[in-house]
Write a structure and sequence with these properties.
Structural class: alpha+beta
Number of domains: 3
Largest sheet: 7 strands, mixed
Number of helices: 12
Strand content: 15-25%
Shape: globular
CATH topology of the largest domain: Ribosomal Protein S8, Chain: A, domain 1
Distance between the termini: 25 Å
Number of strands: 12
Strand order of the largest sheet: 2-3-4-11-5-6-7
CATH class of the largest domain: Alpha Beta
CATH architecture of the largest domain: 2-Layer Sandwich
Helix content: 40-55%
Bound molecules: nicotinamide-adenine-dinucleotide
Length: 358
């Protein structure tokens, strides 16, 4: 088990701004990338937080990530938009893609946004939150163009990525329902975090390079690699494949291939469906029924081993409140990798460490 640092949010943001400046990003891009990554840490998804920066730096240095790039409209059919991210920072491309889709959905009632060639879009829940803040329901099907790391149900070898599925539903008088998960049993970043911390992953998540069950996270981190299994047996596998078909083949015109394993880039394709509940002309009933349903869930008695029933989005909000108050833990290995990445970008790692320490 490696040691942990705990950083207060403000100094951590300041330190990460120094690192992201090393990409040559404009000020707004630095803010967008840092805020999005630190938010992932705050919500408890360290796998998609600042620990991604070393990967982004390696991708940038080999030409897989282009800073200061903005989303481009490729095909405009009114309520259907096809966009290209031109391998720009996903934190910028994702936000701009959603802003375009939100404007259309508010005007037309709905919008389908097909996005290709974005660099890593991070925590997809951020995009559902953006839509929900505008009062919209949203669905997001995402593929990952990188080394395949998840095995198809019944398969002994990885065939695709951790393909997240995400949905957001605005709710009356309470924060939105945000369902946001990788279709693999665990996010790949969580195997990286476990590997860096010297911990095992839970039973039933991984197979080794010969297709045998293992708890060693190294089999998804360093060669010879095995594969992560999908969640929910054949059902999760079906959803993972749907994400590849919709986010990859349909939205991006690009599915993951085995040769992607030789590159450091992580690209995402995403098909997002945005819907304004007002367009259905039944908002009072929707709000009354949705509100009552969520209240009934929250009021349900907890069974043995559980403290209480939660709804999707609540664990992240609780973690955000806790880490905002107490600081963000970062394991020493991940921290060193971030400092090394800063150096590779021409940024003085001592300055980064000093800024984080406040
Ligand atoms: N960009 C990419 O390529 C990529 C790839 C994979 C995953 N991701 C991101 O990784 C992140 C982590 O994914 P994950 O699979 O580890 O998430 P996870 O297993 O932690 O599941 C998170 C979801 O489950 C809900 N949840 C958790 N506990 C709950 C409870 N007790 N009751 C009700 N709901 C509960 C959360 O609110 C959230 O919606 C996500 O943000 C995802 O978008 C991104």
């Amino acid at each position: 088990m490696s040691d942990m640092h705990v950083f207060a949010v403000g100094p951590l943001r300041a330190a990460m701004r120094l690192v992201v400046a090393g990409f040559g990003s404009a000020r707004e891009e630095i803010d967008a990338v840092v805020d999005n990554l630190v938010e992932a840490n705050l919500t408890g998804h360290d796998s998609h937080g600042i620990g991604m920066l070393p990967r982004y730096a390696a991708s940038y240095l080999e030409g897989g990530l282009k800073p200061n790039t903005h989303v481009r409209v490729v095909h405009d059919a009114g309520a259907v938009l096809r966009l290209d991210g031109d391998t720009g920072f996903g934190q910028v491309i994702g936000h701009e893609a959603m802003a375009l889709g939100i404007e259309r959905a508010k005007r037309l009632g709905t919008c389908v946004v097909a996005l290709g060639h974005s660099h890593h879009l991070g925590r997809i829940g951020a995009w559902a939150e953006q839509a929900a803040a505008a009062g919209l329901v949203s669905l997001h099907f995402v593929n990952v163009v990188s080394r395949p790391i998840v095995a198809p149900f019944g398969g002994a070898r990885a065939g695709f990525g951790t393909n997240p599925f995400t949905a957001g539903v605005p709710l009356p008088g309470r924060p939105p329902f945000i369902l946001d998960f990788a279709t693999s049993r665990i996010a790949q970043g969580k195997t990286r975090v476990a590997y860096n911390k010297g911990e095992l992953v839970p039973e039933g998540c991984l197979i080794d390079d010969r297709g045998r069950p293992t708890r060693e996270p190294r089999f998804s981190v360093v060669p010879p690699t095995g594969a992560i299994l999908t969640f929910g047996e054949h059902k999760g596998y079906g959803l993972a494949a749907l994400c590849e078909l919709l986010g990859g083949a349909l939205a991006a015109g690009l599915v993951g291939h085995r040769e992607d394993g030789t590159r450091m880039r992580v690209w995402n394709g995403m098909l997002s469906v945005l819907l304004d509940p007002a367009a259905l002309g039944n908002v009072p009933r929707f709000e009354a029924e949705a509100g009552a349903f969520v209240e009934s869930l929250l009021g349900a008695p907890a069974r043995e081993g559980f403290e209480r029933v939660l709804v999707a989005g609540d664990p992240e909000r609780a973690m955000r409140a806790e880490r905002t108050a107490r600081g963000v833990p970062v394991d020493a290995t991940t921290w060193q990798q971030i400092l090394d990445a800063a150096k590779s970008l021409g940024v003085d790692p001592r300055g980064v460490h000093a800024a984080a320490a406040g």
